[in-house]
What we know:
By secondary structure, this protein is mainly α. The protein is 61% helix and 4% strand.
Amino acid sequence: xxxxxxxxxxxxxxxxxxxxxxxxxxxxxxxxxxxxxxxxxxxxxxxxxxxxxxxxxxxxxxxxxxxxxxxxxxxxxxxxxxxxxxxxxxxxxxxxxxxxxxxxxxxxxxxxxxxxxxxxxxxxxxxxxxxxxxxxxxxxxxxxxxxxxxxxxxxxxxxxxxxxxxxxxxxxxxxxxxxxxxxxxxxxxxxxxxxxxxxxxxxxxxxxxxxxxxxxxxxxxxxxxxxxxxxxxxxxxxxxxxxxxxxxxxxxxxxxxxxxxxxxxxxxxxxxxxxxxxxxxxxxxxxxxxxxxxxxxxxxxxxxxxxxxxxxxxxxxxxxxxxxxxxxxxxxxxxxxxxxxxxxxxxxxxxxxxxxxxxxxxxxxxxxxxxxxxxxxxxxxxxxxxxxxxxxxxxxxxxxxxxxxxxxxxxxxxxxxxxxxxxxxxxxxxxxxxxxxxxxxxxxxxxxxxxxxxxxxxxxxxxxxxxxxxxxxxxxxxxxxxxxxxx
Length: 487
């Protein structure tokens, strides 16, 4: 008994040390990444900043347009920002906790599967050292991933009483979470009907209804307009058309697999092994169905291949790779020497994967900074050199809007009505019939989607600001404005 107790205490100590190491590595990488600012994340930050400062949960003060893809993430971010006194500190702490929690929940799932212990212990490190997850920093990705892993854990535990409220929260984290409800219904719907547990499905329905009611009362529409905006962008064909989302994965080897063919091939092989190892288990069927439904959803609706949309794919890729790695020993015979040799080999592979990820991410994170550094500099210049009441139109508005603190006109329609629909119809200049901003920022030469700037200059009398100091960009000024401003 004493020996067993000592073994349990030793195992607990190893667990605490390993999870503690994961937390420290995550904190270090997050700190290296602290200067990274994803343009779309700054849209969330501006909503939250306006709310914290008493201007309402809006992007442009006084304009109640719902551009919030993830209401649950925004509510979390609001709460943390109120407590910390600032959205930037709040989002850092929130994302650190959510990414760490995702690793911990994944660890709990793997602990319920018959896997080699070192792989289970290594999973949180495998997750938090993968470079992909630092390129979605500031978005709702970690909240979504955490709730996905939590849903899988509850499915495996048959905790239906907790599963369905979590599924409701998952949908509020990202609308695509509804596809997991579909997957659960497909593989377990009959069981719920036989057990008279169909009422559980009312939980997500109630949470979704409450959010829709809030949207209607506050913004005047039940659903956020961003989904329609993304669909319209896809319809334009400018983001790759029907296969655009799938093509996006073709470029990921360089970015997220460190341009290392051996590492990339090993992860694919381990994923296939993990799929085979889980076989016909309930969680395997639900996860694969969910992934397939996501692919169909993004492909049919021609959704642009933004990397944060890929969070479930990368989260479950690491999950399946860990399952495959941890199940290798189970495939060999009971010969003690062979099993020990395989265990040593698996330990080597764990060390190899972690070394590639740790070093690769460390090197890449040395260069972490704003997604659009030029936009940040331009925005700060605009804040200093234009009137606070002026408005600015641009194609990417996250960084520009957050730092310029000006009313923004989004040419692509993520925070303004009508523009996305025009983009979907291939009308890239029609937004000027609805908006006449004081300033229009365009590239020089202009991007195809910025040709409204050409129309503004040639037909509407917008002048090129003569003292705008940024090479590669032009600032167009409405005729009624003084082009000498900021001189």
